[in-house]
Fold this protein.
Amino acid sequence: MVWAMPGLIVSPVSTVSRRRFLATLWAVVAVALCAAPLVVEWLSPARLGGFIWVFGVALGSAGFALGGLQFLLTGRFRRATAPFGIDLVYLVHRWAAVAALLLLCAHAGILWINNPAAVGGARPWTASGAILAGWISLALFLLLVVSALARRALRWEYDGWRRAHAALALVATGAGLFHVVGVVAPQGRVVAIVVWLGLGALWLGSLFHVRLLRPWALARHPYAVTAVERVGARTWTVRVAASRGEAIRFQPGQFAWLTLRAGPFAGAEHPFSFSGSAEARSELSFTIKELGDFTGTIGSVRVGELAYVDGPYGAFTPDRHPEASGWVLIAGGVGLAPMMSILRTFADRGERRPVLLVCAHRTDASRLFVAELQALERRLSLTVVPVLEEPPAGWAGECGRVTVDLLRRVWPADATGRECFLCGPVPMTRAVSRALREIGVSGRNIHVELFDMA
């Protein structure tokens, strides 16, 4: 893709440089937001103890600021997430929350060891309101992080967990702000109060944006289901069209949050990759497999039902690599969905650069888009390599899993300069990433769909 402005053509190199600059800028902003309370502590430290106490307070300030930053990381701010891809931002959110919790636990532990009486001792419920609020906030943050990491093990239904997650985050943060301001205010530290209240307003403003303003905007631009088609075993393609105007524009390989059978304020959206061509203007397509509570009922969706689409998001797209000499696409199961978007878009654009598609499925019956891929091989410079883990008798194609040996057998002789895109179950993409590096592919040329939310 070449970015054009009146009188100016920006080269792909300039586009990459611009993305790197913006990524650096937003990273610096995030670090600054977390560091602001530490700067305040350095300029005006707590006066209740010596170095150990001040160190413990600093850990708490850093942990709480990092915890509050999670509201911004999950706020779906397109400009801020575009240089990274929102899937990577959500992955950072997960582990940054763990880091914030560890800092908060260290903060509480150090202060309790250093001066137990000041933090309630063995009976924290008897401490002052501000200190008690701190213990409540810590307990809620602990519950928040543990429940997020263990959701699948607990078999907690996704929509219910998301609502509980948001409520816990709001209450934990509110209690934390009450704790911080309640402790700082008696010390007369006006600058610290202003900084913490400013950060709190920023965090809650982000929540207001994603829970109220964005749903309000979506409610004004509804979609309607135009088709629900079975495309494979327990796999469906849902098509939606804008009730007025054109569908949103997206790049092939990107995804959106799709809401069905609920309003945009219900918090019942789910992330799915686009599977249709980015050149289509009349409707959007999502290919979805029955894997969970929501997707298990996808086949019963009826034509005419309302839908809401929040997107597009993601950096998993060949459009970010206009200089590529070609592409290698490797998909597992329904991970073929974004690859179909890429291939359909290439066909509509008349793309002539070579593409290798390796698509892995468990059985022959679980293969998707077989006839269409054969047709696309005739329209594109495309080679399709199907791989079956459990092949039927007489199968002449590749068998087993996508391994180093398999990749060496099918790897194009002219693969220099090709970009590699992987999408599928996490264990598969990790194994294939390692295999690609083993055959000499640079990590810069390997792009993995990281989204693993629903």
Remarks:
- The chain has a mean pLDDT of 90.
